[in-house]
């Protein structure tokens, strides 16, 4: 048996873009021969619903970089969340440094009104100008998402205190300055949290056990004799690529990711995931 773990944004599909049909076809071909395809994403489970609707058959899902999972036929599990005390420490630092951040919970994403971050967003747009139209599309998509699809609260920490039923999967930030990224890594990382980059100019703060690598180890205990594949593009995929039998990078992956992989396949936009599955795994 084969188990294929696949990142979503930048790997299975471009951010906000359509999924190449070959990627869907590859999932169905794997399932027909008795193999497993598992989405493993930094997104929260609520942000995966649209993609799940597009599938003709269900898949197992690991979300929030291993913070939780939804196995076929079973309820959603939230395994490795950030406690309120850690959230308070992290948010105090971000507030003091005027960082644009948002909080992923089991009931969606919360953040302050986006108007509070006008200067931050302008700086991000300027940072991404070197990417041309792609950079503009990324920021247009992100800004619209934060404005239209997230819950706005006056004080995120106070909101968490008032709603102890909320489970915090991760705290994500966007910052234009690369120097500030390095400083934030130094300030935020600790015994109980890990910090890593995910998408363009993003850093994520998660529980130390909330990693794609740890989630895959937990998942594979049910399939000890299976051959595991991991396909990714970003720094948050490195933990996954370190534990699978066959690490794979899409062509648009970061160089540090490609260096850790046995295979470098086609770009995300060209359906590199599906092409690899058909060429190397389908019998």
TrEMBL record:
From which domain of life does this come? Bacteria
A Pfam family that the UniProt record links to this protein? Hydrolase_3
The reply on keyword Hydrolase is: yes
Entry annotated with the keyword Hydrolase: yes
Return the InterPro entries for the record. Answer: HAD-like_sf, HAD-SF_hydro_IIB, HAD_sf
Q: Which UniProt keywords apply?
A: Hydrolase
This protein is called what? Hydrolase
The organism is Enterococcus ureilyticus
Give the classification, highest ranks: Bacteria, Bacillati, Bacillota, Bacilli, Lactobacillales
């Amino acid at each position: 048996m084969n188990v294929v773990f696949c990142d979503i944004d930048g790997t299975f599909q471009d951010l906000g873009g359509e999924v190449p049909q070959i990627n869907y076809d590859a999932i169905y071909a794997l399932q027909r021969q008795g193999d497993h395809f598992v989405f493993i994403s930094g997104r929260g489970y609520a942000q995966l619903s649209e993609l799940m609707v597009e599938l003709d058959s269900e898949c197992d899902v690991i979300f929030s970089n291993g913070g939780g999972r939804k196995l076929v036929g079973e309820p959603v599990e939230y395994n490795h969340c950030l406690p309120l005390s850690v959230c308070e420490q992290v948010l105090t630092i971000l507030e003091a440094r005027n960082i644009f951040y948002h909080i992923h919970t089991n009931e969606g994403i919360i953040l302050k009104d986006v108007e509070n971050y006008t200067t931050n967003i302008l700086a991000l747009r300027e940072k991404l100008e070197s990417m041309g139209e792609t950079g503009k599309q990324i920021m247009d998509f992100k800004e619209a998402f934060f404005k239209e699809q997230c819950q706005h609260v006056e004080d995120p920490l106070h909101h968490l205190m008032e709603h102890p039923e909320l489970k915090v999967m991760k705290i994500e930030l966007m910052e234009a300055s690369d120097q500030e990224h390095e400083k934030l890594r130094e300030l935020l990382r600790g015994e109980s949290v890990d910090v890593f980059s995910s998408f363009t100019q993003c850093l994520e703060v998660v529980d130390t056990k909330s990693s794609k690598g740890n989630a895959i180890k937990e998942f594979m205990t049910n399939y000890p004799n299976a051959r595991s594949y991991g396909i990714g593009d970003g720094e948050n995929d490195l933990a996954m690529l370190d534990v699978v039998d066959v690490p794979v990078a899409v062509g648009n992956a970061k160089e540090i990711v490609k260096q850790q992989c046995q295979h470098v396949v086609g770009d995300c936009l060209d359906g590199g995931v599906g092409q690899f599955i058909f060429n190397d795994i389908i019998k």
